[in-house]
């Protein structure tokens, strides 16, 4: 028993009883100028601040462990957040500043006590108390951000619980009880295979993976779909927490195994009598790979007690051929700029963003979350056109960025498609693309490169193949890259250095542009150098079968030298440059490896296409350059 002084501030102690429903008791203790006494030895220790405000207490009892969905227990330092609102189910008015007040377990005994360093002063009116677990100190506006996409390392930390006690009088608040309930549903996935395959990965799709949870009302909003990586609990067994879903008929899974062939399976939720996934319930899904698995459907409410197995949902998974092997495919929203900009939210791992030819795709910046490790933007059913400003990528998060079979038209000629650095040793690839109207494909730009000349993330490779990049400033804008490959491609009308790999001279020990390979390319109206390095030389290992028209004072390669400060070239042969075109390659002396005896008109007799475009099909007898002009 606790005897409070009702004339002073309030401290709330949260006490968890051992009742069947595990009611979590909230007891209020009034700080007093006189001694606070305890009956029946319930309170073992009290601590006060300077104004005798009670700040913490500990209780005696037996040891306990962390709360989880198996044992339903707690361990030291578990945290909950408590709010006090005006009375009323829908009320969101905070009283006495009681917003996300932290309460923490303070000992290893039971009954378990939660204490707070600040406490809550009880209001002089009826109030609504809510609490949630696990507590998050970054909450604003009473909104708990639910993010369920990545549960590979465990799902217990995602187990959102919530409690509410409404219309509580000041007197009743002195002994307040609250019942916490699970706000999510749990999936327990069991996979069998007659052939003995071992599951390598499971991806849960067709379901919302993020949402805003209103702590005042207990309601979800702003749900966003994606896919969930569940937690592996044993061989061929996985578990995940999911948002309540109604209907659940769109739920599916992609399963990969260690089989040498036919190792990808797709499962579609066979709900039987269950059409929704309810909060506090567990759904056991038994899946046979390529076979039928019988079962029944049942569900058990979790409430305050642990999630419990509630029967089976039967189903089978059929072998499928992945549309894009190694990637989770996200279909880009057409005719909706806002949806396209945010379509990757909540995604993680390798993602293929698919654009279908013939549809209209327009967006400002497409947001790329930090959890995406490998991003492929790909056109399907032909080359798809995307009009956008660029990609909003967190610094140094992507291991790989690929553009394939797309026409990308920029909306801002001063912005690179990707201006953020990728991870160290990341790969950047452009294949089968037309790119125009942007500043560059990739790069930090001169200002940032000079400011952070010793702090950079070097790409392992930048490859351009079967592509046309035109009416841009440059391609690679003051990034740092180890290997550059330009093959079967056309560059036209570039106003700045096409490829500029730039770092500080203090980092000469870090290699860049080793090697540089330029083969079978058409390079027209480049106002500056094709390739240039700063802060360490590069090696032009191949310059073959190219047609070039560069400004007269421009270099094919500048700063490309070996350790002896001489031109470093392995193979240079069978190239044509228009008369007067810049053909310098460091200190290289042209001995016929670049034929500069033909005029522009002799090389491209039908350059003006008549529709404002360009036709760089070379004259008969010229078999080099971008081979696609001959098709």
Automatic annotation (TrEMBL):
It comes from the Bacteria. It holds the Pfam family Mfa_like_1. Coiled coil: none annotated. CDD domains: BF2867_like_C, BF2867_like_N. InterPro entries: Mfa-like_1, Mfa-like_1_N, Pectin_lyase_fold/virulence. This is Fimbrillin family protein. It comes from Bacteroides clarus.
